[in-house]
Amino acid sequence: MTDNHGDRLLRGYLSSRLLLVVIGILTPVGILVVNGAAFVMRNLQQFRIGIAVCALISSLVLNGLTASWLLRLQHQEWATIVATIVVLATSIGAAIFTYIGMNNPSHLPDTLSVLTALAALLVPIGITYFSRLFANGR
User: CB of 66 within 8 A of CB of 124?
Assistant: First the structure.
């Protein structure tokens, strides 16, 4: 029984130490994130184009990866052309809507920017998930 009690004490001690380390790390990181966000908000007009470019690149990567996976299932030339057009159009749209949505810092979080970001994340993930279900069902 003594070993079991000692193990519980050791686990409690280590978990409390781990909690203190996590809090010790997360607090300064949180302070840096908040200050960085405040700096971006004060200078939003200068950051808008950079954020829009990042949205374009992110959308190109996510949609491109999804399209490349789907094209493994369909090896026809027309599918490659359609996928390329869809990836480019949705990525450019994401960048434009992000740029427009960040027009006024007093209206943030902006519905258009939030919906664009959610669509940029969820659409490629959803398409990949459901296409894998369909491909595995064959």
Answer: yes
